[in-house]
Design brief:
Oligomer: single chain
Helix content: over 70%
Structural class: mainly alpha
Order of helices and strands: HHHHHHHHH
Radius of gyration: 18 Å
Number of strands: 0
Shape: globular
């Protein structure tokens, strides 16, 4: 029975769609001649922020809250899980040297290699929460807490926001003199962590029903950290701060509609 659940097409799609979104976005390095326009970049960062916040609320926090009836656990467990998710990403940010999104600059060859590595580490850190989120929602399918359609909906939303993220990674790398193929590979590699994190979350959660509300809220906290620490500051840096606001609204609305209408 478990194998039948694991290998339903919706579960397989939910696992692979985020990586597919990043891969397709990274492939833009072969199609676009110039770097991502700064105005478009700001809009895309705002869009990604809207998707991630909406997903954190409807796909993760609300199911964690609804896992309990009345009583202190209804608010205490989601609060604890959310706080641990924030602390976990804060810890990773502090101990792993990395470069902020879209901050790879031209320079000597050795410096470019260092910056590429830092960029890859940064995006890997930021993709971990998304992979965990998909994994814990899939684990919720195993326990009949969450429908497989809801898991697929979350994965679609993350894949949508991963598409521009893939381009944001590969295009600046190309501008530093890296070959298109190598820039694409870096973008693809940054997305590989998502299905791996999803599988880890499934293994940790699927067979221990009691921790599902914790892991759902943990993933929400981790995703929220990425938005507040990285995406929003980058989007609002410099001029045209109204563009990320518009992008945020579009991303939030799209993810909300996907989750409410399809989930």
């Amino acid at each position: 029975m478990l194998l039948e659940i694991v290998f339903t097409y919706k579960i397989v799609l939910a696992l692979l769609l985020p990586l597919a979104g990043t891969t397709l976005g990274s492939a833009m390095v072969f199609l676009l001649k110039k770097d991502v326009n700064p105005k478009l970049l700001k809009t895309l960062l705002g869009f990604a922020s809207g998707v991630m916040i909406a997903a954190s609320i409807w796909s993760l926090l609300i199911p964690a809250i609804e896992a309990y009836g009345d009583g202190a656990k209804k608010w205490a467990v989601p609060s604890i899980g959310f706080a641990i998710g924030i602390i976990f990403l804060l810890f990773l940010d502090m101990v792993i040297p990395h470069e902020h999104i879209n901050k790879v600059e031209e320079g000597p060859h050795n410096n470019k290699i260092t910056e590429q590595l830092k960029m890859l580490l940064a995006v890997t850190i930021h993709n971990i929460p998304e992979g965990l989120a998909v994994g814990v929602v899939i684990a919720g399918v195993f326990t009949n807490t969450i429908t497989d359609s809801a898991a697929l909906t979350l994965s679609i939303g993350i894949a949508i926001q991963n598409f521009p993220e893939g381009a944001i990674i590969s295009m600046p790398l190309k501008e530093t003199g890296v070959s298109k193929l190598k820039a694409f590979f870096f973008g693809f590699l940054s997305g590989v962590v998502e299905p791996l994190a999803s599988m880890l979350a499934i293994l940790l959660t699927a067979f221990v029903d009691a921790i599902l509300p914790y892991t759902l809220s943990f993933a929400a906290g981790a995703m929220m950290y990425v938005v507040i620490e990285e995406l929003i500051p980058e989007a609002n840096d410099g001029e045209h701060s109204n563009l990320p606001t518009i992008g945020f609204a579009i991303g939030f609305i799209i993810m909300m509609i996907l989750d409410v209408a399809l989930g």
